[in-house]
Amino acid sequence: MTIQENLQAINQRIAAACARAGRNPAEVRLVAVSKTKPAAMIDEAAAAGQQLFGESYAQEFSAKAEEVSSAVEWHFIGGLQTNKVKYLRSKVSLIHSVDRLSLAREIDRQWGKLGRRVDVLLQVNLGGEESKSGTEAAELEELARQVARLPNLRIRGLMTLPPWCDDPEEVRPFFRQLHQLAEGLAKLAIPGVEMRELSMGMSHDFEVAVEEGATLVRVGTAIFGERQRAGG
Ligand SMILES: *Cc1c(COP(=O)(O)O)cnc(C)c1O
């Protein structure tokens, strides 16, 4: 299967999941996760019509973005150390992984230097796994209130990376919970906080995520194939 064929198949599966859930497919955007993959594959996907790409490793991304010749949109989706935020500045339109105030402050500071604002999602750890980043659901409201006060970033929704389950149906409750958390936050009407995006679902469970309300699905392996190595 070529990248083009993979993209076509995934877009069809997203459309079918939307149909099952009575959703408009235009509400769901596919984030092609290209971490560890070469610029040439990103250009190939772009030539096949894919506009939006997600990266997880700040330095790898920063170097690779220069090599990609197509005009594409970038999201940053990975765990982010505060001292790496500078590599993303002016390059990404959405950061999915804001999980603590110190990180939000540094993003605010870096985008402040540009005199621009960046959109962010708050990442929530729903599985209670120590190894995963994300704020606890119980601390989400407080984090949202604090981050919302920073002038150079806007909260646009929530993201989660649920525990790995062989059966995607086992992940459904986590997706549903993220959706409910977003609805709860929206009701608080905190200035600077909008709950328009739900970033959830990966290669093996994106259809369930779409059925549960995802607006951004982050798919890597099913587009580009297995990853050989961890990035840097
Ligand atoms: C790597 C990654 C993905 C993509 O995972 P696949 O299983 O390859 O689709 C999605 N989200 C995040 C946060 C990732 O780091």
TrEMBL record:
<feature type="domain" description="Alanine racemase N-terminal">
    <location>
        <begin position="6"/>
        <end position="227"/>
    </location>
</feature>
<dbReference type="InterPro" id="IPR001608">
    <property type="entry name" value="Ala_racemase_N"/>
</dbReference>
<protein>
    <recommendedName>
        <fullName>Pyridoxal phosphate homeostasis protein</fullName>
    </recommendedName>
</protein>
<dbReference type="Pfam" id="PF01168">
    <property type="entry name" value="Ala_racemase_N"/>
</dbReference>
<dbReference type="InterPro" id="IPR029066">
    <property type="entry name" value="PLP-binding_barrel"/>
</dbReference>
<comment type="similarity">
    <text>Belongs to the pyridoxal phosphate-binding protein YggS/PROSC family.</text>
</comment>
<feature type="modified residue" description="N6-(pyridoxal phosphate)lysine">
    <location>
        <position position="35"/>
    </location>
</feature>
<comment type="function">
    <text>Pyridoxal 5'-phosphate (PLP)-binding protein, which is involved in PLP homeostasis.</text>
</comment>
<dbReference type="InterPro" id="IPR011078">
    <property type="entry name" value="PyrdxlP_homeostasis"/>
</dbReference>
<keyword id="KW-0663">Pyridoxal phosphate</keyword>
